[in-house]
Amino acid sequence: MRVESATKDESYHEARGELQTRLRSHLPSSYLLMISIVKGVALGNGGLAIAHYVALAPKLDVDLTAPGMIGVSLAAVVVTYNGTLVGTLLTSWARSWVDTTLPLLVGLLEFLMFSTVQFGTNRLVLEKWVAVLTIWALVVTTLLWQVRRRVPAAHGSDGISELYAWYRRTLRTDIFIALAFLIIAVLFFVALAWLVPASYLLRGIGLSVALSLLIFGSASHESRRRTACGKIDSLKDG
């Protein structure tokens, strides 16, 4: 009886360990799949926005505001997707409703950015687009804070602790960049709505600064992804 009971306990522990391993490996891939679908829908709408601009450009007196808005919208999609790639490499916790709702909201806002461009580039449309961009920056900042809060704090000097400490530092940098972007978006909206006429110079400066920040963030994420892969490989070697 004791041997049979010990065999059952061993089988139970093996099955539980296998199930937990599958769960941990399944969560990042399923989460990334959900994000990929959301981004794909937003990019599909971005394709419509580009086609709309190309179709109207020869017929209307179209300035560079529309390409700038499309460029910023596209960069917003890329920077959040690259950030998700880094996160799924290093995290495997069960996602709560917040972890699911915020990325979906980010995707919805990116879809709205592309949709707004298709209505033109007059001052009212530009104000609404910047308002959507501002809300997007606020949601992204909240999402980054939520992720950083879930990453384990470093304890000790082993490789795993150092890896998570590095990831928490990168998330803190991302939060600062997102806050800076949020402040710039708010100032851009205020300038458009109340302070000065929506001149081409103001549009160019605002869109250029926003695009530069997003490109910097995307490049930073790509560098961190390579660094994370290198750190994980070094753990295997050690």
Describe it:
It is a single chain. By secondary structure, the protein is mainly alpha-helical. Helix content is about 85%, strand content about 0%. It is built from six helices and no strands. Helix 1 packs antiparallel against helix 2 and helix 2 packs antiparallel against helix 3. The mean pLDDT is about 75.
Order of helices and strands: HHHHHH
What does the radius of gyration come to? 22 Å
The percent of residues in helical segments reads over 70%
What integer is the average pLDDT? Answer: 76
Count of DSSP strands: 0
**Structural category:** mainly alpha
Number of domains as seen in the coordinates: 1
**Residue runs with pLDDT of under 50 for 5 or more positions:** none
Largest sheet: none
Alpha plus pi helix count: 6
Strand content: under 5%
The general outline is: elongated
Separation, N- and C-terminal Cα atoms? 43 Å
